[in-house]
Amino acid sequence: MIRIEQVQKFYQVNRDVAGVQVHALRDINLHIEQGKVFGIIGRSGAGKSTLLRTLNLLERPSSGKILIDGADITQFGAEQLHALRQRVGMVFQHFNLLSAKTIAENIDFPLKLAGSYSNEQRRQRVDELLALVGLSDQRDKYPAQLSGGQKQRVGIARALANYPTLLLCDEATSALDPETTQSILRLLSDINQQLGLTIVLITHEMQVIRTICDQVAVIDAGHIVETGDVADVFLHPQHPVTQSLVAENQALDLDLVQLRQDRQRGVLARLTYVGAAAHEPILSRVAAQTQLQMVILQGTISRIKSTPYGQLLVELIGSADEIDRVLASLRAEEVRVDLIDVSGGVQ
Amino acid sequence: MDFSNIDWEDIAQATLDTLTMTGCSLFFTVLLGLPLGVLLFVTGKKQLLEQRGIYALLSVLVNVLRSVPFIILLIVLIPFTLFLVGTSLGVPGTIPPLVIGTTPFFARLVENVLRDVDRGIIEACQAMGAKTHQIIIHALLPEALPGLIAAATVTTIALVSYAAMSGVIGGGGLGDLALRFGYQRFQTDVMVVTVAILIVLVQVLQFSGDKLVARFTRK
Q1: Same domain, yes or no, for A65 and A116?
Q2: Range A206-232 average pLDDT
Q3: How many CB pairs below 8 A link A and B?
Q4: Interface predicted TM-score (ipTM) of this complex, two decimals
Q5: Which of A229, A248, A267 is the last residue of a domain?
Q6: Confidence of residue A252 (pLDDT cuts 50, 70, 90)
Q7: Same domain, A244 and A304
Q8: Using the beta-carbon criterion (under 8 Å), do B127 and A85 form an inter-chain contact?
Q9: I need a surface site. Which of A119, A290, A302, B162 has the fewest CB within 10 A?
Q10: Which residues of B127-141 are buried (b: 16+ CB within 10 A; e: fewer)?
Q11: Residues B124, A216, A240: CA angle, nearest 5 degrees
Q12: How confident is the model at residue A262 (pLDDT cuts 50, 70, 90)?
């Protein structure tokens, strides 16, 4: 659905000083599938916000192509661009609602701008959207009278007004508390499933990616450093930036060196199992067949979107032969085994 | 003090003249100054229709007009006023210089008020596919309304005090009365009454302006 090809973005820091440029996006190539929730994660200043804004040309790339449904939007004239933007919803970190308009008027605003609906159609659509985001009883209030979570619901309703096929979320939950974040993410997830629209979101929180995204791209200093299915990237992060983002979220694998030095008894292994395997008594089955001592040092059993997974850091104490045999039978059970050496790296 | 020698009919007429001059001038100041302020804002650096040349030109024009002392402007503009309204005296004769004196001031205030509108709101409108004129009319001006009312209030009060100066070129109003009777004929009583009326007028204007600002503030 969306194909980003060779996109570069340079900023002129100060136009009076020639040659002082910031290279905000470097050779970005991405493919975003129809109907998926695609997350872009990175630290502040990594370029994720710029990248998201190239998708509706709020930021114009310096070079490269952005194909939406086959059409290169960087070639669009003014009229085509207005039409495109009316069909691409956008949700903002700080909501960006019109403070002088009521909730209903805010949601109606994109319909009014489009100019292609009758008053009756507009009224009906606003009612539908208010019901969708659960704010029917707040329609005549002003944004300042709502909580942060409610404001974001208005922002989402407004973004959906023109029946978009693509929804861009710019740190949509970063200004909200954890509980409200979960409810907004649930709403986005429902919208994705019910309406089948594609969602591209940017965030600096792995938790957000883990909760609703199907696929993820990790951006650092203007480069896409890692991309793939969320389960793969989340459970087996390859790039240091991804590893540290994942570590912040699950507190696993932190200070491994320290941990290893404290307990120099056996072999450290990280066991990862995904999907149906998470419900199986694998560990006890394996343990029943061996004299090996197993210590669970850290562990997480959770979900990535709707897929259950488990990740355990275990220490195996016993003879080398016995350890190899146990690891082999774990692998036979579709458990991924990563041995961790003293220096803290993964073998 | 003895107020028995005051011609209250004169005072009433002068008050009415001051109100007429202020009201008419405010109307034309907003009519000209609002678009000028919007133009200054949108052509400014990193704004919707960034145009360095136009911005620089308008900005210089505004600064030049604002640097001429109003009393000088009154005199310099006499031929222009004669051409425009056929007289340089009385209430009609003071309105053109008043409008030209306060329009650049109001425009600059408008520019500043618009700059205070959250950029995120403009970005959200752009993301919805709004055209520039739609953003200005449906988002920028309504969002800035309380600030614009406050700017108009400040401008109105400036107009009241400028209007008082127009007595110098034979305009009417309270300032004229104070100058002719209070100063030139040493009638301190007239001076005191006119100043008192001006004080009350300014208080009422500021109070009403503040009320309106509060009425339209949604934040």
Answers
A1: yes
A2: 94
A3: 65
A4: 0.88
A5: A248
A6: low
A7: no
A8: yes
A9: A119
A10: bbbbeeebbbebbbb
A11: 115
A12: low
